[in-house]
Amino acid sequence: MIRFDGVSKKYPDGTVAVDDLSFEAPTGQITVLVGPSGCGKTTSLRMINRMIEPTSGRIWIDDQDTTSMDQAQLRRGIGYVIQHAGLFPHRTIVDNVATVPLLLGWDRRKARSTALELMDRVGLPASFAKRYPSQLSGGQQQRVGVARALAADPPVMLMDEPFSAVDPIVREQLQDEFLRLQQELGKTIVFVTHDIDEAIKLGDQVAVLRVGGHLAQIAEPARLLAHPVDDFVADFVGRDRGYRALSFQQSPPLPVRQEPTIGIGATPEEARAATSDGWLLVTDDDHHPLGWVEPQHLSGPVSSAMLHRGGTLARAHGPLRHALDAALSSPSRRGVLIDDDGALIGTVRAHEVLTAIEETERPAAEPAIPVGADGEGELRS
Ligand SMILES: Nc1ncnc2c1ncn2[C@@H]1O[C@H](COP(=O)(O)OP(=O)(O)OP(=O)(O)O)[C@@H](O)[C@H]1O
């Protein structure tokens, strides 16, 4: 557990970057610090490993006051990942990953074999080991950065906008893999981002900071969306927060309808015989949905080039947001539900999902309490 206890940072020019910050980052969980540019996120993060010294207050890791710890020893227990990865350009990938173990005096062979294992864990092929950072894409470099931070198996990880410099698709992949990795590793992570969507997706709890380094609210993502404590947090979490909160509500059993289907290669006559509706779902041999066709407009056998692939797919017992999105994005307005293997279960309509939403209790019924509002700075999310 990392605990900020009344921590402030005033830079020599008088800028107050962090003001009386108190919160706890629980062991084995991801705590995200989010807020607008200049609100003191990076300063807060760097005070944990004492790259920046607080002006006042204390930061504790478990029962130890970090100011009383030897700096080198403190940092040995903390992995640090930054935007653009910050790799050494003249070292190979395997040597970059092995940096900390080598500094710690591990023998070269053990350091390298650990580095190779970690590369595999973060999804980098062993063939990259001998490459240099400039020979990797931005997303691959970020993976190296994560592997390097994990190399000495530190219990704590500090991550400062680690996925910001890559395109949205790669970013999403990195986020998904990061969550998968965290499920296995259970590190205590403090993660900085300015992107509320990233914060909501990754955080077990999310701390929203406002400029001047004040903590506006700390809460679990669902609660933050349902009960922002003030206008600043409400604006920051966004106007579509009601919709986004559905991500955290598991779908109750929905009224699933059987959906007629055809396969690739079906003739227009077969397609028209399969349904009288304007749209027909096309599946593969394993019953995985591929897309939709309009039987009345078919001029030849169904081919993959003809498919309308606009609709998203939702797992039957996944979040309500996915089910609603599947219905809204489907050209037929029938949302496609699949099982865990990706096979078709049936379809659902938007109004049926909305009925399910109305019948589902809203999360986090009592209001969140702003941390620090009463001067105690206790975490009560
Ligand atoms: N070395 C410094 N000297 C003076 N002021 C500084 C220094 N470093 C940061 N600041 C100021 O402290 C405030 C907080 O900076 P910090 O980098 O912690 O914010 P941030 O939330 O991480 O911002 P961003 O999202 O833009 O990276 C800002 O006003 C910044 O200008």
From TrEMBL:
Enzyme class: translocase
Gene3D superfamilies according to UniProt: P-loop containing nucleotide triphosphate hydrolases
Family matches, as InterPro entries: AAA+_ATPase (IPR003593), ABC_transporter-like_ATP-bd (IPR003439), ABC_transporter-like_CS (IPR017871), CBS_dom_sf (IPR046342), P-loop_NTPase (IPR027417)
UniProt key word Transport: yes
SMART domains xrefs: AAA (SM00382)
Keywords: ATP-binding, Nucleotide-binding, Transport
GO terms of molecular function: ABC-type quaternary ammonium compound transporting activity; ATP binding; ATP hydrolysis activity
Family: Belongs to the ABC transporter superfamily.
Protein name: ABC-type quaternary amine transporter
Species this protein is from: Oryzihumus leptocrescens
